[in-house]
Amino acid sequence: MIHKILIANRGEIACRVIRTARKLGYRTVAVYSEADARAPHVDLADEAVCIGGAPASESYLRGERLIEVAKQTGANAIHPGYGFLSENAGFAQACADAGVIFIGPPPEAIRVMGDKAGAKARMIEAKVPTAPGYLGEDQSDERLLDEAERLGYPLLVKAVSGGGGRGMRLVHQRGELAQAIVSARREAQSAFGDGTLMLERLILNGRHIEIQVFADAHGNAVYVGERDCTSQRRRQKVIEEAPSPVVSPEMRANMGKDAVAAALAVGYRGAGTIEFIVDDKLNYYFLEMNTRLQVEHPVTECITGLDLVELMIRVAAGEKLPITQADVKRQGWAIECRINAEDPFRNFLPSTGRLVRFQPPPESMFASDTQRLQGVRVDTGVTEGGEIPMYYDSMIAKLIVHGKDRNDAIAKMREALNGFVIRGISSNIPFQAALLAHPKFVSGQFNTGFIAEHYAKGFRAEDVPHDDPDFLVALAAFVRRKSRERAAALSGQLPGYDVQIGQDYTVVVLGAQGNNRHVQAHVDEFRGKSGVAAIRVGDKTYDIVSHSRLNDVKITGTVNGKPFVAQVERGTVKNPLALQVQHNGTRIEALVMSPRMAELHQLMPYKAPPDMSRFVLSPMPGLLVDVSVQPGQKVQAGERVAVIEAMKMENILFAAQDGVVKKVVASKGESLTVDQMIVEFE
User: Fold this and answer.
1) Which listed residue, 309, 318, 550, 567, has the most CB atoms within 10 A of its CB?
2) Nearest to 643 by CA among 328, 230, 179, 242
3) Which residues are 237's β-sheet partners?
């Protein structure tokens, strides 16, 4: 019997588990590293214990310390969440040996399915479809090269342990394989303590579809629907949805039957996910099993009304599954966007620091209360003013919506993203908005190569075209006019010398390298009260009503009778007097001036930024894992210069042009700040 649960994790998943445990009447114990002393999960639990330093190896990965804290606090069960030790068979066994209930599968099931090669062999025995690959014990580079030639390219180099895209490399041709082996092995060793690799034939133009399964200790097992995780970037999931737009009822039943067979083949218990890759003819092949709760579990909760964490706890307590296959119903459509601390406009580099503003959209659905549907849910483990440290992964929140169908869910998600305010660090919200508006995504006809194909050169502001760009111009003029009206009311100056509000404005949309765009806007009188105006831009008129305050980043109101949510704030990197306006993923920076001021501004010379091409600078905070060059060395464009580790991922820096190394400024093992110099060229 469970009476107190220790949550061996951090962030949003720790908060998620605590909420369900509290609903079921269990007391909870949170653990935290020195970097997480003020994290929300610490305050949310009934008790909290510091378990070590900021690096995960000194805290969240210390299994013996976690069990020790469980014993000290009287917790007789441990929920591992996901990541860290959630798929560590040794930790699950240590819990069992210590008499602590591990809220997850048996150690042997984790061991078998955690070894991707062994899992694949077991699936072949269970007659579950699998993709061709190499699973051998011979890990020499020579053997891997030979097996790759046998399989053909493109292929995947994969770590047999862990998940989340770490220790995985896509290889298009033979010349890329040697470096991929080195990099994948090192990343896997760092993340999972196991550098063993396998090879797998890559199924091009595939979809990534996974089946959520549950099993208890009484021989019962069910599948509770599929999730489509095809929207991926560098093997990392970006948007997940349930159900899948391509799965028919017959296909769902077949995949579900195979997923249950896979779970039963290893004596599984608790929540698990069978991941399949589906080709363009809708044939599916086993990829791996995640022997834990998935990051994207909320979309399954939305369409089924089931609390998956509650089921995990009940099964771990020895109860029978409270549902049969016939009880599993599906309703509506759910989408989840992973909100990550990364800058999409700088090739998705990690972004760490203080959350100066963190204002998620209003929630109408809540973790652990899965009966409230058709709305918006935010799972997070951060608060405004908190820090995003470099030691852990980049996800800071999960934004989940549930709609009556897929189009409704997409519309809800776009509106929710518009109202998600994050400042102080960069986030991938503009990229998410672009994906949701892309015709391929909207149609549901896309594959795992969708992002790589359409954003091959990275992500740029122009990749998010607005369906009505003049609305952003009108909104900038509206806010400027409102601020002028307020300034006039508070000026206190004598009649004839007061602030001139004006009705005609020139909105100067700031462009790259001084290529600005001038747009004329006329603002009618505010119709007798603040917050109501008609703005004419060209031949269009925008009737805007908004009573948001001038210091609000999030602006809500109506335009031509239709509701909108946008973000507007003063001061940008390019100009402290400019307004930044953001809506549906499109962002402009604009100066709103009188026509005469705009004419004079146009005469101002453009000041180009300094030439930094002779230097290799750190694009992010992180740990310098490797420096591949030395003074006097000739380097060609595209050659590797350094490797930086940040948020559990390796980032390789390449030379932008040919040159000779003059000086290596930073040392291996050094913690770097943004734009810190690493290498100088002559």
Assistant:
1) 309
2) 179
3) 232
